[in-house]
Amino acid sequence: MVNEVCFRTLHCDRPWRLETYQSEGGYEALKMILAEKTPQEDIIEMVKQSGLRGRGGAGFPTGLKWGFINRTAPGEKYVVVNSDEGEPGTFKDRDILRYNPHALIEGILICGYAIGAATGYNYIRGEFWEPYERFEEAVTEAREAGLLGDNILDSGFGFQIHTHLGSGAYICGEETALLESLEGKKGQPRFKPPFPAMFGLYGRPTVINNTETLASVPDIVRRGADWFREIGVPNSGGPKLFSVSGNVVRPGNYEVPMGIPFAELLEMAGGMREGKRCKAVIPGGSSVPVLPGEIMMDVTMDYESIEKVGSMLGSGAVIVMDDSNCMVKVLERIAYFYYEESCGQCTPCREGTGWMYRVIHRIENGTGRQEDLDLLDDVAKKIMGRTICALGDAAAMPVASFIQHFRDEFQYHIDHKKCMV
Amino acid sequence: MSLRSEPMVRAQKFEDKESLFTREVREQIDTWVAKYPAEWKQSACMPALTIVQDMNGGYLTRDLMDQVADYLDMPPIAVYEVASFYSMYEHKPMGRHKICLCTNVSCMICGSDNILEHIRNRLGIGFGEVTPDGRFGLKEVECLGACGGAPMMQIGHTYYENLTPELVDQILDGLE
Ligand SMILES: Cc1cc2nc3c(=O)[nH]c(=O)nc-3n(C[C@H](O)[C@H](O)[C@H](O)COP(=O)(O)O)c2cc1C
Ligand code: FES
């Protein structure tokens, strides 16, 4: 069972067109809701029952999040889409925007209906020009077909969607930094609570969801919560897009049921290039702990299975490395990324990311000291849990896990002042 | 970071908006302003900076940032903050074609080092530099969300994926 939800139109010619989407059942969910005047709580309940969890990385139950909104509060409420897609290894939202933008639009509309909002913003990272144009075209198509705008299909329900473009900042993927950015400021995360459900965009109640999360919603409504949930495994409902990159034969996005064995996913991606050994895998984007290939071979791709072996499903970005890769060099690059992208607001993250990078850099360059490994562990531990947002944790977790699983490689660098691979 | 959500406004508004930029640029900015609540013109700050940067050949100046502030009724400092926070804004010329090469983890694993080496040899410039004729600039960027096509780079609005040295040559040859 592949390409059942977000990639449902992918086998068609010009999959991004409205008529293509409609030929695959698109907008039927919206029409049903509007015709039957489905109570808002029924939709929220359906999303809860589906087992859909946030696809942006944190895996928060989507229905629960929608339920936090006080629907009867007067004034504006907002739906915000997180299409900032900056987590290294992740490239799935780009393909949803390019190939199935109407699924996202329909998902936004259903969410808006369910929480009583009339406006949605899609925050797309500024580099995504082609996806931005595709999404804008789709918005125009939907508007012209009367599926978007004032008084949709004569139902009395009206909704507007606007696109906002980022300008290059990984931190803006963090939901409250994204809201700040949308308000025309530097993207520095807010203290929580209050959460966006209470105090979101422009201080108003806001649901913010990942692109893939919202694009999954129409099929949940159309084909039923049970249908969706049963595609996956307990606690990991539905299919999921996995962005497979690195040393595999066919890197790409694979929409497959949650709970698929990693080995099977690897096979879909054509296996390892040149038949090399799978040395290490980062299973959920660069922010999650790395795992040795041998461990991954026994893991299934769902939240619990990956957590059991000490990592996370994250955004579903699976970075596969063969044994020609030096783990010190890989970690150095990852550490540099967090150093570069820390917003500078919290001292442990601002100072700690640079410190960790410098120490790993000197190990990589043959000037590491024996005490450096403990130092790195110590710095990482002192960042964890001590920052406003999770970028600090995201910077710390790779460091701890690379050293835990590949300590001998780091040790070799320190002892011999060179690489062992 | 603020718990209040209020736009940063300035004491005295700049009235003569017609004197700023060109009519075309103002119209472009206005299409963005129209997306946000009336009191939140500030939300258009990022797109406005992008528009004026493009108009100015790829980089911002103090004067342009001040004009954006005037146009959106923002304090200049609020615009400088935005312009210095986000990586897509440039504060010096980056050449007619800014080559943005991703060196993040998936691209690195798939050989972005070789691509960098090739570009360096061909153009004689490193990251942050511009060729003497002003044709190309080179910039290191973080993951651009196209890791399935690693190694990759962006020039202008276009992504170029699955790069090889030969492909890079072809692409660069095709740019004036
Ligand atoms: C540093 C950082 C970067 C993030 N980047 C993204 C991102 O690029 N895209 C995304 O959808 N979520 C990202 N998130 C997660 C969001 O904060 C948030 O959890 C998500 O948008 C919620 O939507 P969901 O529940 O549908 O996943 C990031 C979080 C952190 C801490
Ligand atoms: S790592 Fe280069 S595009 Fe993602």
Quick structural summary:
The complex is a heterodimer of chains A (421) and B (176). Chain A has helices at residues 18-23, 28-36, 40-49, 62-67, 92-99, 101-115, 129-144, 175-182, 211-223, 225-231, 262-268, 293-296, 303-308, 327-341, 347-364, 372-383, 391-416; strands spanning 78-83, 119-124, 160-165, 206-210, 239-246, 252-257, 278-282, 291-292, 317-322.
Keyphrases for this structure?
heterodimer; A: 421 residues; alpha/beta; 5-stranded mixed beta sheet; 4-stranded parallel beta sheet; B: 176 residues; alpha+beta; 4-stranded mixed beta sheet; 4 strands; elongated
Bound compounds? flavin mononucleotide, FE2/S2 (inorganic) cluster
> How does the overall form of chain B come out from the CA principal axes?
elongated
The run of helices and strands of chain A is: HHHHEHHEHEHEHHEEHEEHHEHHHH
The general outline of chain A is: globular
In total, the number of strands of chain B is 4
Tell how many strands the DSSP assignment of chain A holds. Answer: 9
Number of helices of chain B: 7
How many helical elements of chain A?
Answer: 17
Largest sheet of chain A: 5 strands, mixed
- Note the run of SSEs of chain B as H and E: HHHHEHHEEEH
- State the low-pLDDT regions of chain A, or none: none
Label the structural class of chain A.
alpha/beta
Fraction in helix of chain A: 40-55%
Strand content of chain B: 5-15%
First CA to last CA of chain A: what distance? Answer: 39 Å
Task: Give the strand content of chain A.
Answer: 5-15%
Mean pLDDT of chain A: 97
Q: What is the topology, as strand order, of the major beta sheet of chain B? A: 2-1-3-4
Give the quaternary arrangement of the chains. Answer: heterodimer
Return residue spans of chain B where pLDDT drops below 50 for at least 5 consecutive residues: none
